[in-house]
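Need Tetratricopeptide repeat protein 38's 3D structure for a figure. Predict it.
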Amino acid sequence: MTRKDKWGNPVSHGSADAVARLERATELLACYQTDPVAELDAALAEHPDLVLGHAMRGAIMATTTDKAFEGEAAKSLLAAESLARHANDRELGHIAALRAWHQGDYEQALEQWGRVAIANPRDLPAIQFAHLGDFFLGYSSMLRDRIARVLPHWDASVPGRGYVLSMHAFGLEESGDYAQAEETARTAIALNGKDGWGVHAVAHVMEMQGRAREGAAFLQDSAEVWAPGCLFSFHNFWHQALFHMDQNDFKSALRLFDERISAGNFGQALELVDGSALLWRLSVLGQDVGYRWKDQADKWETRIEDGIYAFNDMHAMMAFVGADRREARAALIASVERVAAGNHGTNVMMTREVGLPAVKGIDAFGRGDYRAALDLMLPVRGKASRFGGSHAQRDVFSWTLTEAAIRAGDRALAETLAAERLALKPDSPLNRDWRARARDLAAPKAA
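Structure prediction for Tetratricopeptide repeat protein 38:
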């Protein structure tokens, strides 16, 4: 017997209870509230033949970009594939996407989820997994356009419309349409104040526009609504820390690290990325972050050989530099070189084109070889989107390069990089300090 969920999507399972549990898990995931996996596990305990439950569970695990969850993703994939003969076309599409991701073909996974969403434009999991994949691969325009495809099917009468608006808002922001992005995100938040992705989109807009004081206040004032139960509250607080750093308020940034960002004890790679990214930015500016690097480095060391996502590798190197783990640095470079020499998988391309020079550049910066860091990282900064993340996250390239140019004594380059930053955020005290430091360098000698 085939049923339809409340969005009109076909579900091959005949149990009304199973469909209701899928709906609850879908909304928890869309709102990034705890705990969609627990909801799916409960559903599968009662209905082990719920094929879409297995496929969704596997996709959640897979899109953590953390090999620590690979075993669980594989288990869910095998369970879903064992039930494929009973699955409908929608469910088969989900299984195909999960299989492609598991095999390292992230691009094909996005194509599969995208096709499912075209055929079923109210399939919220397919839309969301494709959206996450677009983020991890740095597909800025697809973060916007893939959601725009389905928006006509999500009018005010459709439950969960706000979640789709939040995704569209983030895509609009990453595509540079800041006014429309903020308007759309605030509409989504008005529908559900616990929508962490909508809050996230507003934070990104304010980050890109240099509205640091306003951004810090926005996140602080709204946290009591969105933060409890939010699966990625650490990331929104990371944004708040960036706002504080942009105002040269490093103490507040470190306090957020201790109280909000590291409070989850960094159980997965996504948390470790934010922790390393924040500590690196502070350390590059000469701020003493003390003992905090040790925990980061300890957890990244267990992931040296993962070779699953180049973006992670760059942040692992930051921790190894910060904690002065020389053996770990050498081991990571060797591991990343092996990935780059491969011939299969999306991450091979990401590593070869951006990940490897980024990892080596961070290592060179840590050795005090700032000229080498510049030579390695400058050529790939313009194509850094190829290894994923957001504009705000990839700003670590400009951040590191600006400081490297100053430390290398390259006044012309340092002034150039500082000018770039000030063009985007002319009122930033941090960027003004960089310009002043660049101008204090000795003038280049005439040829």
